[in-house]
Amino acid sequence: MSGLTTLGAVGAVWLDGALVEPGEATLSVLSFGLHNAFCVFEGIRVHSGRPFAVAMHAQRLCDSAHEIGMSLPWTAPQIVAAVDTAVAAAGFTQAYVRPVAWLGDERIGIDGSGTTVHLAIGVVRWPESPASRPPLRLGLSRWTRPAPTMAPVGAKTSASYLVGSLALSQARADGYDDALLLDHRGYLAEATGANIFLVRGGELVTPIADTFLDGITRRTVLRLAADAGLPVRVERVTLDDLAAADEVFLTGTASGVAAVGHAAGTDYPADRPVTELLRGRYLDLVHAHRTRTGSEEASCTRSA
Ligand code: PMP
Q: For the chain, what is the mean pLDDT?
């Protein structure tokens, strides 16, 4: 890994059990994970010096690995501790943390059994998003999220990012900020790196997470909405529902709660009371959080 990314300086890298110099954090060009997409990862934001929802991210990394039959030699609490070590070593107040696990180079071919599982955690400086950002413009992608019989859709695998990256680069080439993807049945799924919410008649609506990643920000926003007494429906969402919405916003670790001004041909009003309420509560939470949940006690080792 070089010392720089498009985001900024790499502050620290933890690799297979210890902090290493970023320049020494390398992997073999024959890694099975690189050739066969046997790779799972996470993205965690550090706000005010602390990684937000780190226990949930560590657990999701374990769950993703489990879903593709990869035996991570680290438990969720050990991953939390490793993230803390890397974040402390980097010393950044605002940062992005990327834990990534992949299969090593002991085998070439289709069967990856017997290969070593590696885990790296990189910490990159990432300034806080500006308080006011222009609302996003979303195009509708020609790519769709695969059916659960075609890919491990609930896992955060690098394999699922090929379609997302293709959709995003096409959207950017077409002048949009991001793309919306439908699922294999034609229902609205998500954006390329964020989940979607609609507001209609004061009710919050979001698609059922059965063909795409159940975002930790999505779960957090659902909880914040319940705390605020907002009615919430988690159900199948169509393009007609999208066109009829009063407000639309995206949720994700990278962007938090992000207002949408245009999606798939529809413009939305600049007045977004529900989006602003939830955005404010989310920002308060990520900057104030301190306590960690019981999920930190969970382990990667689960019975199948
Ligand atoms: N969907 C996809 C495809 C993503 O990459 C992300 C970002 N991890 C999300 C949804 C939102 O997930 P989270 O809120 O956990 O960041």
A: 92
The verdict on 101 and 181 lying in the same domain is no
Q: The tokens of 148 are what?
A: 């659960």
Q: Which domain holds residue 47?
A: 10-125
Percent of the chain with pLDDT over 70: 92
CB 76 within 8 A of CB 64: no
Burial 103-118 (b: 16+ CB within 10 A, else e): bbbebeeeebeebebb
Task: Return the SS3 of 175.
Answer: coil
- d(CA 107, ligand 1 centre) in Å: 31
216 CB near ligand 1 (under 6 Å): yes
Query: Hey, what amino acid is at 220?
Result: T
Q: What is the pTM of this model?
A: 0.93
The DSSP bridge partners found for residue 197 are: 249
CA distance 194 to 252: 5
Site of tokens 């020609």? 142
For residues 146 and 28, state if they share a domain: no
236 lies in some domain: yes
DSSP lists the bridge partners of residue 204 as 199, 232
Say how many C-beta atoms besides its own lie within 10 A of residue 290's C-beta: 6
Residue to substitute in 57, 98, 138, 213 for testing ligand 1 pocket (most ligand atoms within 8 angstroms of CB): 213
**What's the one-letter identity of residue 82?**
A
- Report d(CA 283, CA 170) in Å as an integer: 30
Q: Is residue 294 part of a domain?
A: no
Give the three-state DSSP class for 75: coil
Residue 252 CB–ligand 1 contact under 6 Å: yes
d(CA 115, CA 109): 11
Closest residue to atom 6 of ligand 1, CA basis:
193
Spatial separation of the C-alpha atoms in residues 78 and 76, rounded to whole Å? 5
- Please state the rounded mean pLDDT for residues 27-50: 96
